[in-house]
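Supplementary Note 2. Why include the ligand at all?

Several targets in our set were suspected to adopt different conformations when bound, so apo predictions alone were not considered sufficient. For every target with a known small-molecule partner we therefore ran a joint prediction. The input for adenosine monophosphate is given below.
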Amino acid sequence: MKVLVAVKRVVDYNVKVRVKSDQTGVDTANVKMSMNPFDEIAVEEAVRLKEQGLATEIIAVSCGVTQCTETLRTALAIGADRAILVETTQELQPLAVAKLLHAVVLKEKPDVVILGKQAIDDDCNQTGQMLAALAGMPQATFASKVEWVNDRLQVTREIDGGSEVLSLQLPAIVTTDLRLNEPRFITLPNIVKAKKKTLDVITPEALGVDVTPRHQTLKVSEPASRKSGIKVASVDDLIVQLKTVAKVI
Ligand code: AMP
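The joint prediction is reproduced in token form.
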């Protein structure tokens, strides 16, 4: 089973995101960037499939600027076998990424493609679904468990108020939810090993994909700041405040 994993370079989840003063987007200058947390879970799941003797090769793919190679090296250090960077400085929207991944899928012919359920920077939650549509493959999104049962991929999905179990014929697309696994700690020897693994660089043009953005971001703004609260001395005081100031009772 050949597994392709999509990994996106995003602002690290510990960073307090700041909106640019001209409100055109988020400030990424001098900000720590890391692998999207859901993609770390995707790579970990692929490595676990390999450790179970199910996956034979894991290929990590990232689309974006040159620095995405750092994200790919992280994927290689977790346990991916080789990596592909689809290099572009163009802003990539989910449809463009799905088309690029589809082109890679046509070349590499993986049995399973694992993506994160969403990228924490734009929160789109679209790429896996669009890729499944473009590739004509079955999809199981928001996976919290992936098993191999009767020569099919059995995926437990997190849904509102419970879970759903799907059985997929390969090739198939899976997107990861937070509870699927806990990614392993990356060891120094594995970081060193990752430096020697193959990392190919291709361009959207070489894949024949037009990545021109289809929508335009008009404005990005910070959430409205909340007014500070007040401390009341007693329950009676609270009731007075609720009646006369907040006017909610
Ligand atoms: P999104 O639809 O943008 O929320 O992203 C969902 C998932 O698609 C991510 O968790 C990644 O697995 C994949 N993805 C999105 N953008 C990229 C990218 N530029 N390069 C590689 N994978 C991506």
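The radius of gyration is 22 Å. The chain has one domain: 2-222. Comparable summaries for the other entries are listed in the accompanying table.
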